[in-house]
Specification:
Layout lengths: L1 H31 L4 E7 L5 E7 L15 H4 L2 H9 L6 H7 L3 E3 L25 E3 L12 H14 L2 H17 L24
Parallel strand pairs: 3-4
Antiparallel strand pairs: 1-2
Length: 201
């Protein structure tokens, strides 16, 4: 049921939101350049990698030595707007239709984080990653990595269609209020450095 639900809602969302997708793509091209899409390898179900798609939110800025500037310096006000409204996530609906992702599930993080998870945290890969998730409607980027992973594993252990519908409705509310977009006193979420409690690793 979850997979059927994902496909139907994703197709309907793409059809309904197609004007926003086209306008956003045009604005990204004008304001940030090409390519319009940001793609990156991310771990999915059972840790298997796939190429996640998003609208790009950063410019290709480098320092005097030709080295890429830190993310917080490449993130433009327009990019912040895309993230706060979650418009950058719209291409992810194609990942859902392909079967790489679900509408609801733990967010797909970096491949390099895989060896840093404890056994409990690694449970987040027992389901398809999501465009939104339980952690996103309970703090998003304003909570710690430890809190995020606890919320992710709670979802894995309690997942169901009605919970997914609840999370999708809460996501709309959170996006409209722009809650939890950025961590406290930070422009972007700091990188995960590993759990401080590794007894179950």
């Amino acid at each position: 049921m979850k997979r059927i639900f994902d496909i139907i809602i994703s197709i309907l969302a793409l059809l309904f939101l197609s004007p926003f997708v086209l306008i956003t793509a045009l604005l990204v091209r004008v304001k940030l350049g090409s390519p319009i899409l940001f793609t990156q390898e991310r771990p999915g179900l059972n840790g298997k990698s796939f190429r996640m798609m998003k609208f790009r939110t950063m410019i290709d800025a480098v320092d005097k030595n030709g080295e890429q500037l830190p993310d917080e310096q490449r993130l433009t006000p327009f990019g912040v707007l895309l993230r706060s409204t979650s418009l950058d996530e719209l291409p992810g609906l194609l990942n859902v239709i392909k079967g790489d992702m679900s509408l609801v599930g733990p967010r797909p993080l970096l491949v390099e984080y895989l060896p840093l998870y404890s056994k409990e945290q690694a449970k987040r890969h027992n389901v398809r990653p999501g465009i939104t998730g339980w952690a996103q409607v309970n703090g998003r980027n304003a909570i710690s990595w430890e809190q995020k992973f606890k919320l992710d594993t709670w979802y894995v252990e309690n997942q169901g269609l009605w919970l997914d519908i609840k999370i999708l409705l809460l996501t709309v509310s959170k996006v409209l209020k722009s809650e939890g977009v950025s961590p406290t006193n930070e422009v972007i979420m700091p990188r995960f450095q590993g759990s401080t409690h590794l007894e179950d690793k």
